[in-house]
Design a protein that fits this description.
The structure is a single chain. This protein is 36% helix and 35% strand. It is of the alpha+beta class. The chain has a single domain, classed as Alpha-Beta Plaits. Strand 2 and strand 3 form a beta hairpin. Helix 1 packs antiparallel against helix 2. The chain is globular. The mean pLDDT is 97.
């Protein structure tokens, strides 16, 4: 079973970074789908429900590697 959540992003600087983040997130084990929107400054993540928190930690690491200034607002 998958869970889908949307998170706001802070300080995502460019569309190119958003595309790189999206590609990297999609490679994480357990991620079904991911969309990073530079315009909306949002991340939509669809991932394995049972491992969602664990996967989300990986997503945060990947985003920091691509764009160190970008923050995912985990609410």
């Amino acid at each position: 079973m998958n869970m889908k959540k949307t998170f706001e992003l802070e300080d995502l600087d460019c569309a190119n970074c958003a595309a790189k983040m999206e590609a990297a997130i999609r490679k994480i084990d357990g991620v079904k789908d991911a969309t990073v929107s530079y315009i909306a400054q949002k991340l939509t993540l669809e991932a394995d429900d049972g491992r969602f928190e664990e996967i989300l930690k990986e997503v945060v690491k990947v985003c920091k590697a691509v764009e160190p200034d970008c923050t995912i607002l985990l609410k």
